[in-house]
Design brief:
Structural class: mainly beta
Number of helices: 2
Distance between the termini: 21 Å
Oligomer: single chain
Largest sheet: 4 strands, mixed
Strand order of the largest sheet: 1-3-2-4
Length: about 120
């Protein structure tokens, strides 16, 4: 990929965000993408910690605080696909996993796009 992607975790929630050259300037270009994964075994993040961060921050493309799970990535020379997967009930080992959101980052085009 010709644009940076940062993979993060350990905040017990899912996030997909655009990285900007200057977050104080709304017209600043997008220069990369951050993908944050939740944790299968971790406790959920209290809503008070982040509030409705997505509504207050235009660079946040997705946030989800209520589920535990993981990010499944498929990386090719032209694209990075991410499937944010979560457990319906983390206290049940056999609980099915489901896709919460899917995004794609295309080579040379910074920023994540919703992939359904």
């Amino acid at each position: 990929m010709r644009n940076p992607v940062v993979l993060s975790g350990d905040i017990h929630s899912f996030w997909v965000s655009d990285l900007k050259a200057d977050f104080k300037n709304d017209k600043s270009p997008v220069v990369g993408t951050e993908i944050v994964t939740a944790c299968l075994a971790g406790a959920r993040t209290p809503h008070a910690r982040f509030g409705d961060a997505q509504a207050r921050n235009a660079h946040v493309r997705y946030s989800e605080l209520d589920h535990s799970g993981y990010a499944l990535l498929e990386v090719t020379p032209k694209t990075l696909h991410v499937d944010l997967r979560a457990s319906d009930d983390q206290t049940v080992a056999a609980s099915p996993m489901r896709s919460m959101a899917r995004f794609v980052v295309e080579a040379g085009q910074p920023g994540a796009k919703n992939a359904g």
